[in-house]
Design a protein that fits this description.
Elements: E1 19-32, E2 35-42, E3 45-51, H1 57-63, E4 71-80, E5 95-106, H2 122-127, H3 129-132, H4 136-158, E6 162-163, E7 181-183, E8 191-193, H5 199-207, E9 212-220, E10 232-241, H6 245-264, E11 273-276, H7 277-284, E12 297-299, H8 310-313, E13 317-323, H9 329-341, E14 349-352, E15 358-359, H10 368-374, E16 380-387, H11 389-406, E17 417-421, E18 426-429, E19 434-437, H12 452-455, E20 464-469, E21 472-479, H13 484-493, H14 498-512, E22 519-525, H15 526-534, H16 564-570
Parallel strand pairs: 3-5, 6-9, 11-17
Antiparallel strand pairs: 1-2, 1-4, 2-3, 4-5, 7-8, 9-10, 10-22, 12-13, 13-16, 14-15, 14-16, 17-20, 18-19, 20-21, 21-22
Helix pairs in contact: 4-6, 4-15, 9-11, 13-14
Length: 579
């Protein structure tokens, strides 16, 4: 028996008069007295089945048993719908299948939720993920993601990059997040780590003479989950010898243009805008600014150096936002509470009313020159941040995004791509009282700032770059250190001892000492790219089988305890949980 002659979503007016067999799921059944209508769904779309008891009494008998998500096979004649019954919203809306034979192939138990039901609890959705994945949105998400990956592979291969797989069982190295570790029976007491990225492997491949490498790589990070973060992630990983940043940027832009055009039918323009990290922090308070709206941050540090308002005069940085609305006292109180959540001590403000008159408890402490500098259009509010530059950027950047959403300033139809360049190389870790790598310890300092690694580490800049769209980072990369002496110098600055360098990175240092070419690359998180492209608020809805926010799979129950005999074979003892 042939299950079907064509897909349900392929029925068209030119098929009228022909006989076909269709197979799929019952999306909906409507019983109109005698006639029974069934919307049959498969991965191509919907087709309407009509079962007439006068035409097919046996099929009608079976039709009355049908419930949502039963699997059916129907055979019959394609007929044109009556003009008043045409559904212009469906590609198959001009025709229907008059059923002569109907078979219930598989039945479904009562469903835990309906496929068209809104606001279903996420844990319930993941518990019954096979059902959740049948929903239109999830089918769109997974298929669009797959199409994007196909385009990426095509563009990489066209540009001469070779697809090479790297190990999943790897050596544990410090890369920022916690590693997932894997015991091994053959070496009890020793552990592999699941890779957070193929970082050192891709460097080794380029050193090996594979001058252009790429991979759609699986990566693992044992970290707390958020709306935009996964423990298991997939990324495009790219590395090239003798790197040219302009060529790398052009390759990524070409790829993104094609993804947006073929997956979303959206034309975006290139070259993409560029901005240094310092400029992004100053103007937007973020290293991934959303450029779909204005509300830029302005600097008033020099203007307020001699201010009678001590908070401004004594602050290392004073910056402000001009909000295009006259905010009420209650609104200002809510914004101050929001700012304090982000670390602010308070929130100074100037409110200009409809007549342009200023209302603020700090106005009396400001000079005419200062007030003139802050003066804005009538019905405008000026919000200030005064603190260390990093704190001011953090608070005003968060306020900017919050106000953009609250005041509906964001152009939801726009796509704004941006390259952020020249990131800091190192940052000070206050709890540990030492310098740490902003990206990873293999990132190359710029030629202009390499000497600052010793004298002023916080001012050293990296040959590092991120690609951002609508405030979401979708790719990031850097040029790597190819000189053993410079790599040791960076390790020393990070307070990684010579012994630890040999223990953790000896193989890389050896490779760098045997003819390593200059190299660099970029990685793009496929999950986050999909999240941005599909405008999904939760990254888990771009993945077929995700864990929930607790890192648990409600569908399979993983992770689960391991039998004691297996633990013993691995040489592992599980300690009792401490309160």
């Amino acid at each position: 028996m042939k299950w079907r002659d064509l897909k349900a979503g392929e029925l068209r007016k030119e098929h009228v008069g022909q006989r076909f067999a269709l197979a799929g799921w019952a999306a909906r059944r409507r019983d109109h007295g005698g006639l029974v209508f069934v919307d049959l769904r498969d991965d191509s779309g919907l087709a309407q089945l009509v079962i007439n008891p006068e035409r097919a009494p046996e099929a009608a008998k079976a039709a009355h048993e049908i419930r949502n998500e039963f699997v059916l096979r129907a055979e019959g004649e394609v007929v044109a719908r009556a003009p008043e019954a045409v559904n212009p919203g469906l590609p198959t809306g001009e025709v229907e299948l008059q059923v002569d034979e109907l078979e219930i192939v598989s039945r479904s138990e009562p469903l835990p939720f309906q496929l068209d039901e809104e606001n279903v609890d996420e844990t319930l959705r993941i518990r019954y993920r096979w059902l959740d994945l049948r929903r239109v949105k999830m089918q769109r998400n997974i298929r669009t993601r797959a199409r994007a990956v196909s385009i990426i592979r095509s563009e990489m291969e066209t540009a001469g990059f070779v697809d090479i797989e790297t190990p999943i069982l790897a050596k544990q190295t410090p890369e920022g997040a916690r590693d997932f570790v894997v015991p091994t029976r053959l070496q009890p007491g020793s552990f592999f780590a699941l890779p957070q990225s193929p970082q050192t492997y891709k460097q080794l491949l380029v050193i090996s003479g594979f001058e252009r490498y790429f991979q759609i790589a699986r990566c693992f990070r044992d970290e707390d989950l958020r709306a935009d973060r996964l423990q298991e992630l997939t990324q495009l990983d790219v590395e090239m010898a003798f790197p040219d940043r302009e060529e790398l940027f052009a390759l990524m832009e070409r790829t993104m243009l094609r993804i947006w055009r073929e997956c979303l039918d959206v034309a975006i323009e290139s070259p993409f805008q560029r901005m240094t990290w310092d400029e992004a922090q100053l103007r937007y308070g973020s290293d991934k600014p959303d450029l779909r709206f204005g509300l830029e941050i302005h600097d008033a540090t020099e203007l307020t150096r001699g201010s009678e308002f001590g908070v401004f005069a004594n602050a290392p940085a004073v910056r402000y936002l001009r909000v295009p609305q006259e905010l009420s006292r209650a609104e200002l109180d809510r914004l101050e509470a929001f700012a304090k959540e982000w670390g602010a001590k308070g929130l100074a403000y100037l409110v200009f009313d409809e007549e342009g008159e200023v209302r603020s408890p700090i106005a009396k402490f400001l000079s005419e020159e200062e007030l003139a500098g802050f003066r804005s259009e009538p019905a405008t509010t000026v919000l200030f941040g005064a603190d260390e530059p990093t704190m001011v950027a953090r608070v005003l950047g968060a306020l900017r995004l919050h106000l953009g959403r609250e005041l509906e300033l964001i152009d939801r139809e726009a796509w704004r791509f941006l390259w952020v360049t020249d990131f800091p190389l190192l940052e000070w870790d206050e709890p540990e009282q030492r310098w740490t790598a902003v990206h990873h310890p293999f990132t190359r300092p710029t030629d202009e700032t390499a000497s600052l690694v010793d004298s002023d580490p916080g001012e050293a800049r990296a040959v590092a770059y991120d690609l951002v769209v609508n405030g979401i980072e979708i790719a990031g990369g850097s040029f790597r250190i190819h000189e053993p002496d410079l790599q040791r110098k960076i390790f020393d600055r990070l307070e990684i001892s010579p012994e630890e360098q040999r223990q953790k990175f000896g193989y890389l240092l050896d490779a760098l000492a045997m003819g390593a070419p200059p190299h660099g690359g970029i990685a793009s998180g496929i999950d986050r790219l999909s999240m941005a492209m599909l405008d999904e608020p939760y990254i888990r809805d771009t993945v077929a089988f995700p864990k929930n926010q607790a890192g648990v799979d409600p569908m399979t129950g993983a992770p689960t305890p391991i039998a004691q005999d297996l633990l013993a074979e691995l040489g592992i003892q599980v300690l009792p949980k401490t309160e």
